[in-house]
Amino acid sequence: MVPGGAESGADAVDLSVADRTGLRDEPFRTCVGCRGSDSWSALLRVVAATDEGAGDSSPVTLRPDPRHRLPGRGAWLHPTSDCFEMAVRRKAFGRALRLQGAVDVSAVAEHLGLRPEQHASVPTPATGRTRSVRDQSTNHKAG
């Protein structure tokens, strides 16, 4: 035994390896699109913003938060069109932000340089579920 109670030899614990807090320079987050893990500085944070006077039936608007400072729950996304498309297709923003109802992603699409009208979410008539405008236009079968 080494004085002070620490063990030596094979049973010794190297605290520099056991303490995992110092291994990463900055926090890691998971992209809601590709589900890949990356540094928080490489990801775009997205928060939900509601219109106070619109009531419960209005769609929730997603706002990009490039400075990571807006209040509220955030979803993290690689700032690429591929990850954005996957997140919209999988309805990942609603799950990550714990939202119910329609979600308007046009502000995020605009921030990423995509055409916002292509990705605006609208409620489906029969079920009240949401589908993107792009999904509605590509799912029609020709006569």
Automatic annotation (TrEMBL):
Annotated segments matching region Disordered: 52-74, 114-143
Pfam families: YlxR
InterPro entries: YlxR (IPR037465), YlxR-like_sf (IPR035931), YlxR_dom (IPR007393)
Protein name as it appears in the record: YlxR family protein
UniProt source species: Terrabacter lapilli
Basic and acidic residues bias spans: 132-143
Residues annotated as domain YlxR: 29-100
SUPFAM superfamilies reported for this sequence: YlxR-like
